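User: Please fill in residues for this 551-position structure.
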């Protein structure tokens, strides 16, 4: 039995997992399990692609000096040059690519590798450090006025901090999922590096203390809370100021206006996690920016490993390599169907990039089982909140009692930018098809949500973020998913790929959605949707689909 049973995972989880499998026999067994179980074409493609890559590596079939570059994809070239350390060989590959396919993205990959191997022209010389205010004297350089930027080199960082979001008085599931993942990561981290670092849960709100026992049960070693009646609703400034102040409490910043505390003796967190919700995305960017670090947004995979880096800007000396320890590898979906990018936040001389921070897509990690017997330290963080942070008062608001949940429907009819010729009619046609089924509802692509389409009043009520399907919306698994006028980008694919049957309607025969649809109808949704509605009303949808070619 392989370590990973693909039938127990959704495709969004499998992408990064399969890329880490290096045993061909294990991949073959995974393929057998998938064929005998779920038998999902995209999953089999993932496994087969990985097997092909391993076979190519085992055969040593790619010699960069002689390979025909026209037979390689850009990804193949990127993988090939990653292991080439001879700049002359790389320059030869670069020249042949320019004389042949001349693909700009491939050329960039080769040039980046040459720069990584060679560094500057003064090979072996130390890279001179010039402070930003001296390097850019003619500019009002934003980092010149931020006192923290130059004050973090060589500081001490510890622990993984998890911002635990609540909504309508409830601790949301993604907060629990992040705590469970953080617990596993830090347990492995402490074993690997012989450390005793903690999972720190952050709770901010008007009833923050009510969730302390829950976050402890889901994995926190330390809980830091701040409770204030004025924090019932998420507010950018006070939430950011509170979280940043917590993370900078004590340590070597006590002289900068922070008091000494007995629960934290380091500069800032080593790692930070935030939920990739509307509020979480907002807060994560603001906090990481205030802490002078970066952010990997909308991640679906996390692991901690050492990483060998040769970039002169990071190692301080051209032509040198350095192993960076304890690097949080943050995986997020790319714009292709099956690829993922791994984001690293690496320090450089005279400049630390900590905390290493990520926002996490809800549902990316398993919901852990709570342990009510766990114990942890709890800190009620005291802080005076500036009245200027509350200049705007919310005098009246409505809270939706239910919202739109598309996950329980037998059928979901989703429309995308293909409605652009007549947005109102496009929504109306989709709603007609929804009404034809017994249990169906309307979904939307992000393109419709973020567009500037003008809708007539009677359909405008249906165009809301609550109906968005995809990476930053809902993930649905209906019996039938009808995607009309949706191109099929990876962000949308993540939200619908587990549907039993996917029917796509698109005028573009090369649309990405064709690759993971069971039926593809090449046509205008304004013509196709009425015919589908008629077929459903007459009980002939199956027959109608049987006449559609899906090859």
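Assistant: Residues filled in for all 551 positions:
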């Amino acid at each position: 039995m392989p370590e990973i049973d693909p039938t127990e995972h959704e495709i969004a989880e499998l992408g990064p997992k399969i890329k880490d499998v290096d045993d061909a026999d294990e991949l073959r067994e995974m393929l057998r399990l998938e064929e005998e179980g779920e038998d999902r074409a995209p999953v089999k493609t993932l496994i087969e692609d990985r097997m092909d890559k391993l076979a190519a590596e085992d055969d040593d079939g790619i010699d960069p000096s002689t390979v025909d570059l026209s037979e390689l994809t850009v990804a193949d070239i990127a993988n090939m040059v990653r292991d080439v350390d001879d700049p002359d060989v790389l320059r030869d590959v670069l020249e042949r690519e320019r004389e042949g396919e001349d693909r700009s993205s491939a050329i960039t990959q080769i040039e980046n590798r040459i720069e990584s191997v060679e560094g500057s022209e003064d090979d072996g010389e130390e890279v001179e450090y010039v402070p930003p205010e001296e390097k850019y004297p003619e500019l009002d350089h934003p980092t010149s006025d931020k006192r923290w930027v130059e004050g973090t080199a060589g500081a001490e960082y510890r622990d993984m901090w998890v911002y635990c979001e609540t909504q309508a008085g409830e601790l949301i599931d993604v907060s629990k999922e992040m705590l469970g993942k953080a617990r596993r990561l830090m347990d492995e981290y402490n074993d690997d590096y012989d450390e005793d670092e903690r999972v720190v849960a952050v709770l901010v709100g008007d009833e923050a203390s009510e969730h302390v026992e829950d976050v402890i049960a889901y994995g926190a070693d330390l809980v830091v809370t701040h409770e204030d009646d004025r924090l019932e609703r998420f507010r950018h400034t006070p939430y950011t100021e509170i979280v940043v102040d917590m993370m900078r409490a004590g340590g070597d910043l006590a002289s900068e206006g922070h008091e000494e505390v007995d629960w934290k003796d380091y500069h800032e967190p080593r790692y930070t996690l935030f939920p990739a919700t509307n509020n979480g995305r907002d807060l994560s960017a603001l906090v990481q920016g205030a802490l002078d670090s970066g952010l990997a947004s909308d991640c679906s995979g996390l692991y901690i490993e050492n990483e060998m880096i040769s970039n002169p800007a990071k190692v301080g000396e051209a032509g040198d390599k350095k192993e960076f320890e304890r690097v949080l590898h943050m995986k997020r979906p790319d714009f292709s169907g099956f690829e993922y990018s791994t984001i690293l936040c690496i320090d450089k001389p005279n400049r630390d990039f900590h905390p290493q921070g990520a926002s996490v897509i809800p549902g990316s990690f398993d919901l852990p089982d709570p342990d009510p017997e766990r114990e942890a330290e709890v800190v009620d963080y005291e802080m005076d909140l500036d009245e200027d942070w509350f200049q705007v008062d919310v005098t009246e608001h409505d809270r939706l009692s239910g919202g739109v949940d598309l996950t329980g429907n037998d059928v979901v009819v989703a429309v995308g930018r293909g409605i652009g010729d007549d947005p109102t009619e496009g929504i109306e046609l989709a709603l007609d098809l929804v009404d034809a089924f017994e249990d169906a509802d309307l979904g939307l692509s992000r393109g419709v949500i973020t567009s500037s389409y003008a809708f007539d009043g009677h359909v405008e009520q249906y165009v809301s973020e609550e109906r968005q399907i995809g990476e930053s919306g809902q993930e649905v698994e209906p019996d039938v998913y009808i995607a009309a006028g949706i191109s099929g980008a990876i962000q949308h694919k993540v939200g619908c790929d587990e549907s039993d049957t996917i029917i796509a309607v698109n005028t573009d025969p090369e649309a990405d959605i064709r690759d993971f649809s069971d039926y593809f109808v090449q046509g205008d949704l304004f013509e196709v949707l009425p015919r589908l509605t008629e077929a459903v009303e007459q009980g002939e949808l199956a027959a109608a689909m049987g006449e559609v070619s899906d090859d």
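For context: The chain is about 35% helix and 15% strand.
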